[in-house]
Specification:
Blueprint: E1 3-8, H1 16-25, E2 29-34, E3 43-47, E4 50-54, E5 67-70, E6 75-76, H2 78-90, E7 96-100, E8 104-105, H3 108-124, H4 144-153, H5 165-186, H6 197-210, E9 215-216, H7 218-227, E10 231-235, H8 261-264, E11 273-281, E12 284-286, H9 299-307, E13 320-322, E14 324-325, H10 326-336, E15 340-344, H11 346-355, E16 363-369, E17 372-374, H12 380-383, E18 387-391, H13 395-407, E19 411-415, E20 423-425
Parallel strand pairs: 1-10, 1-11, 2-5, 2-10, 5-7, 6-8, 7-9, 11-15, 14-16, 15-19
Antiparallel strand pairs: 3-4, 12-13, 16-17, 16-18, 19-20
Helix pairs in contact: 3-4, 3-5, 5-6
The protein binds inosinic acid.
Residues 12-13, 40-42, 139-140, 142, 144-145, 237-238, 242, 251, 253-254, 287-288 line the site of inosinic acid.
């Protein structure tokens, strides 16, 4: 059994990229596969004085002796992938890329729909405009939700369509007939120079041509590799609490982020998934809207944000920050069958504690609601009523032991600093 799944057990940005890069550097894996999401993701890997930021390529892409695969559960922006590949090429890194013929393609309409619909949704929910006055506050603005919506409606463009010009053009023309009136309803001003269907089709067809060797039935490739005993790492983008079904709907993303997505989002049998590694940051951060029980609402938030450099890799926006919420993490651990944990940013939390002269750092162990104790992460409608109940472990070792005891699983990796190798492996 050779499939390792790595997922974020919080709300994104726990540090999966670095953990995945470290696991792969220990050797033995033949492929790293993304199974969900698209350019809404952002992983940062720091190597010496170089910082690599990826949005669509799998985090294993710096290991160019293994396959980097974009699975069928992903949505892709072809121009963005080309850009990331070009950046890597400048550094002399040429990944062996495979892209699923079943992945869906993000189109210009999706990005516009995301922006206009996002703003209308915020207004409808009575939320204030963001401090940046941006249209894209409720999402990363990358067209993710509308692309998955078209996939579910079965009108989307798949990667396989890029290699058949006539079919591609006909599908795009059909989509234009639906999208143009819809975008007007959403409030889009009339574009004096809209991109013609021909130009869009030409552009996409060119990607199809240049990726001809990479596009394939990656599900079959992976099943064959796993059958032969090859080790594969499955990378979940976003986080399990951003999952479309089990996550913080409607503040979630639109893909399947839970561990089960490693099977449905790549086309492999779930029987091959043998180990689930959960990544948890030693505190909590959140990029988007929605209730956040352990959020810091005073000047300590600024201190933690600065120490942790909590700014979106994709959007650059400041993240909301707060104490570790173990109710949230435990629910993720149970839902996904997490075997071991990677606890990242212990160094940041320790520094934060020092800066505040706190010898004990609060950890949320339950919520209180109308005199009842709640230990399961609820739906978003209920989450805003939850009052956090804290315990206060003292020092680094006690903090880690507390997390292990609460969750009933070992912390195998601890993040100790920003560099690629700043990870400590704890032996059982
Ligand atoms: P979307 O995925 O762009 O539709 O955004 C939906 C929600 O998920 C927003 O609150 C985003 O901030 C959040 N989100 C999406 N991708 C990530 C990620 O990789 N890290 C953290 N939050 C994310």
């Amino acid at each position: 059994m050779t499939g390792t799944v790595v997922i974020d057990c919080q709300l994104g940005d726990a540090g999966k990229g670095k953990v995945i890069d470290w696991i792969l550097s220990q050797g033995g894996y033949s492929a790293c596969v993304r199974f969900n999401g698209g350019p809404n993701a952002g992983h940062t890997v720091k190597v010496g004085d170089k910082t690599y930021k990826f949005h669509q390529l799998p985090s294993g892409v710096l290991h160019n002796d293994i396959y980097s695969i974009i699975g069928n559960g992903c949505v892709i922006d072809p121009a963005g992938i080309e850009y990331e590949l070009a950046q890597l090429e400048k550094e002399g890194i040429k990944p062996i890329l495979k892209v699923s013929d079943r992945a869906h393609v993000i189109l210009p309409w999706h990005v516009l729909e995301d922006m206009y619909l996002g703003e209308l949704r915020r207004k409808n929910a009575g939320l204030k405009p963001t401090e940046m006055g941006s249209l894209t506050s409720s999402t990363t603005g990358r067209g993710i939700g509308p692309c998955y919506a078209d996939k579910s409606s079965r009108i989307g463009i798949r990667v396989e369509d890029l290699s058949d010009y006539d079919r591609l053009k006909a599908k795009l023309a059909f989509l234009a007939s639906l999208k143009e009136p819809y975008l007007k309803i959403l409030g889009r001003p009339v574009d004096p120079e809209p991109e013609s269907i021909e130009r869009l089709a030409d552009r996409l067809y060119m990607f199809g041509l240049s990726w001809e060797d990479s596009i394939s039935d990656t599900g079959q490739f992976l099943n064959d590799a796993l059958k032969r005993g090859k080790k594969v790492l499955f990378e979940g983008a976003q986080s399990v609490h951003l999952d479309i079904d089990s996550g913080v709907y409607p503040y979630s993303t639109s893909s399947t982020c839970v561990a089960a997505g490693a099977s449905s989002g790549t086309g492999i049998s779930p029987k091959y998934l043998s180990e689930i590694i959960g990544v948890v940051k030693a505190y909590t951060s959140r990029a988007g809207d929605g209730a956040f029980p352990t959020e810091l609402r005073d000047e300590r938030a600024d201190v933690l944000r600065e120490l942790g450099k909590e700014y979106g890799t994709t959007t650059g926006k400041p993240r909301r920050v707060g104490f570790l919420d173990l109710v949230m993490v435990k629910t993720a651990v149970e839902m996904n069958g997490v075997d071991v944990l990677a606890l990242t940013r212990m160094d940041t939390l320790t520094e934060f504690g020092r800066s505040q002269e706190m010898t004990r750092i609060p950890v949320c162990k339950a919520y209180e609601f109308k005199g009842r104790t709640i230990t399961r992460f609820p739906t978003m409608n209920m989450l805003s009523f939850m009052q956090p109940v804290y315990d206060y472990p003292q020092g680094w070792d006690e903090y880690i032991r507390y997390v292990e005891h609460y969750l009933g699983i070992p912390v195998r990796f601890v993040g100790t600093g920003p560099e690629r190798n700043d990870i400590e492996e704890r032996k059982p």
